[in-house]
Amino acid sequence: xxxxxxxxxxxxxxxxxxxxxxxxxxxxxxxxxxxxxxxxxxxxxxxxxxxxxxxxxxxxxxxxxxxxxxxxxxxxxxxxxxxxxxxxxxxxxxxxxxxxxxxxxxxxxxxxxxxxxxxxxxxxxxxxxxxxxxxxxxxxxxxxxxxxxxxxxxxxxxxxxxxxxxxxxxxxxxxxxxxxxxxxxxxxxxxxxxxxxxxxxxxxxxxxxxxxxxxxxxxxxxxxxxxxxxxxxxxxxxxxxxxxxxxxxxxxxxxxxxxxxxxxxxxxxxxxxxxxxxxxxxxxxxxxxxxxxxxxxxxxxxxxxxxxxxxxxxxxxxxxxxxxxxxxxxxxxxxxxxxxxxxxxxxxxxxxxxxxxxxxxxxxxxxxxxxxxxxxxxxxxxxxxxxxxxxxxxxxxxxx
Length: 400
Ligand SMILES: Cc1ncc(COP(=O)(O)O)c(C=O)c1O
Description:
The protein is of the alpha/beta class. Helix 7 links the parallel strand 3 and strand 4 (about 135-145). The protein has helices at about 5-10, 15-25, 45-50, 55-60, 70-85, 100-110, 125-135, 150-160, 185-195, 215-220, 225, 255-270, 275-285, 290-315, 340-350, 380-400; strands at about 30, 90-95, 115-120, 135-145, 145-150, 165-170, 200-205, 235-240, 250-255, 320, 330-335, 355, 355, 370-375. The protein is built from 16 helices and 14 strands. The strands form three sheets. The protein has an eight-stranded mixed beta sheet with strand order 2-9-8-7-6-3-4-5, with helices on both faces. A four-stranded antiparallel beta sheet has the order 10-11-14-13.
């Protein structure tokens, strides 16, 4: 019999991944996957970039590259991050194969079996499984409208001195799945708690560029830009939501002592991220095309969000409560306790619309009081139709 490792035996298959199969069925309207719409990708621009590359750069694209990343992309990204106010001089930048690899590298650097790490509850499902694959115990602290609940966090840390959690993982901008955008106050008040408990912060900023209004734009300033000098922070970003997940490119801006370990770990994982996509991403960023393209995405995603929000108001019963997001990909909705989300999901799929149940995002895999709708990869006419289907399904379930 095959003897799998303890780490891999503890992993459960992700409900999102299982449901992604359904998203491919063209008859089902999927609000499940957290991905950009295929029709939005800048295919023409990338065609043009590739066609205009000199032969030697094209050849470099086929080759292995340095572990830290393709040098011109490191330079362009440093500039890009500097403009966001990030302390690029005092830190080091590592290109990763998607930001999920950066999350895994952090896990590998810091987690020994049975050690504890702290996350938000809910939490990005990829981070939950990455941390679990290093046999971490996860402690989820509830999110409220302004960010992670600091009383709960401080209280937990005060009572877990003997456990000594390794780090805190947060997504302050347009959280996946909750859509939350942290207030400045919450970010500021988190700093003394991190200092008091000597806790490293992992700040995941996969969605910050996708804001829908100026108020939100002002609030996306990374914690590392604001407080990087006061407390250790590893800042993670990604090209997945602003260019394409198929590029598999992310990054980590880390204090030098963490960077050194991260580079060693990356060397052992995949030696380097693809030169091919790094070259294309570098040209896209350096030429100013990225900025223009992201400007277009903001308008389109905002429209999709507004269409979904209007349809929810029209078709969902008022027992379903939610907060309208100001950026990102997701709406997170709360159901009354008497409803069973799994039955609603099954009925919804039978009628032609799918979403993700909340327990997928609970580090303990239990709390099913919410569900996540993603508007990012569904055109507006389908959004309206899919929400009508789900509204009818929920109303029927309420009637019992
Ligand atoms: C919060 C968050 N972080 C990281 C990722 C991973 O992105 P990637 O590995 O494609 O860069 C995602 C993807 O959905 C995400 O939602």
